[in-house]
Write a structure and sequence with these properties.
two-stranded antiparallel sheet; alpha+beta; binds zinc ion; globular; L-fuculose-1-phosphate Aldolase; 15% strand; eight-stranded mixed sheet
């Protein structure tokens, strides 16, 4: 079987990250929206199950999926949505059908291009508003403030595709093109009319990238309301990234352990120290 229900393999870090992204006041997801994943040491990926809420996630709400068979399914033009549904099915658990999220292919597509420890996919209201607008792609062709550039890097825009096979295919192809250009995964994928995917070596990194994506969207919306965005000049940004202190900050932001309460403390003390 490609998908297995193995709650004993779900880490506390993955649960904490999922609950943190699901907190209602963050406006990243409502109801059963969104999903998270962690790469397992055996090369599979532990991804949120379909129909469960991020805010109340437990180890029971995840399914371990194999990457190779799902990529084969993606690459086969004859695959159907029914094939995908069958491949994500982990059987009946406690009288309930247990299946990996239909968006598991987004997580699998990331892992197929390069290993990533944590991935978080959400539908933040502030970002989806921009991604559902006529300015969706153009809005992200420039950075609008320096901390966004530090935390998010160069985001990857992917036009709308319906969730499931089609979305998995376009994300996989876009990530392969980015890998050919940059030799690294983006930290943020922007899905047209849909949401965001944050990719990082730690759970704290996924949390930070998601939070900064929301702030970046709010800044853009305010700048447009004030008459238009003044983008940061590309030449200044190249110099900025070359600075040792900036690359050190980027590393710091994606490292470190994550647990909900501690992360809130450390994130608030970090932002204080950043501005001292
Ligand atoms: Zn989604």
């Amino acid at each position: 079987m490609t998908a297995l229900h193995q709650p004993e393999l779900v880490s506390q870090e993955l649960i904490d990250l999922t609950r943190s992204l699901g907190r209602p006041e963050r406006n990243l997801v409502i109801l059963a929206e969104g999903n998270t994943s962690q790469r397992l040491t055996d090369g599979r990926v532990m991804v949120k199950a379909s129909g469960s809420n991020m805010a109340s996630a437990t180890a029971e709400d995840f399914v371990a999926v194999e990457i190779a068979p799902l990529i084969e399914l993606l690459e086969n033009p004859e695959s159907t949505q029914a094939d995908l549904t069958a491949a994500l099915d982990a059987g009946v658990v406690d009288d309930r059908r247990c299946r990996a999220s239909i968006e598991a292919l987004v997580h699998v597509a990331v892992q197929a291009v390069a290993p990533a420890a944590f991935v978080g996919h959400t539908h933040p209201t502030a970002v989806v508003g921009i991604l559902a607008s006529v300015h969706a792609e153009a809005a992200y062709q420039h950075w609008v403030y320096s901390d966004e550039a530090v935390v998010v890097g160069r985001p990857l825009f992917v036009p709308y595709a319906s969730p499931g096979l089609e979305l998995g295919r376009v994300v996989h192809q876009a990530l392969e093109r980015r890998w050919d250009e940059d030799g690294e995964l983006p930290q943020l994928i922007l899905l047209g009319n849909h949401g965001i995917v944050a990719i990082a070596p730690t759970a704290a990194g996924v949390d930070s990238v998601s939070a900064m994506a929301v702030k970046g969207a709010e800044v853009r919306a305010i700048a447009v309301a004030m008459g238009g965005v003044v983008p940061l000049p590309a030449s200044a940004m190249a110099k900025f990234f070359a600075r040792h202190d900036i690359s050190e900050r980027r590393d710091n932001l994606t490292q470190g352990k994550f647990s909900t309460a501690e992360a809130e403390d450390s994130l608030s003390s970090k932002s204080r120290s950043d501005h001292e």
